[in-house]
Amino acid sequence: MRHTGTLYLSKTSPQASTARCGAFQLQMLLYDRLGTHHIEPWRVTWTGRSAQRFWLEHAPMLKPGAALVVELERAQIHTLHCRPPRSELLATVMSCALVPSRSKVAAYG
User: Fold this and answer.
1) Looking at the 3D structure of the chain, how many domains does it have?
2) CB 91 within 8 A of CB 73
3) Residue ranges of the chain whose pLDDT lies below 70
4) Which among 2, 48, 67, 109 counts the fewest CB atoms within 10 Å?
């Protein structure tokens, strides 16, 4: 099943690394804001050339709260063993696009 929507970058910085297969890999913690006091964490992994291009082009703009339109697959719930227990959704990124900040939109409008 695939999931598509707008998620927001958390305060945790994105991590660029190399996957076991040697390909570029980007990991991000994103939030789905479901309400004023309810957010759902998504820990996503994106592997390959498209992830590397995205990282090289947008790394300086990936700040906490940045909006991303993502298409995800293979979502599964992972429960963290802490007190109190918390859950995250893990998923693989199929595509990702950075939503321009409002200040940039206003400057071009």
Assistant:
1) 1
2) yes
3) 102-109
4) 109
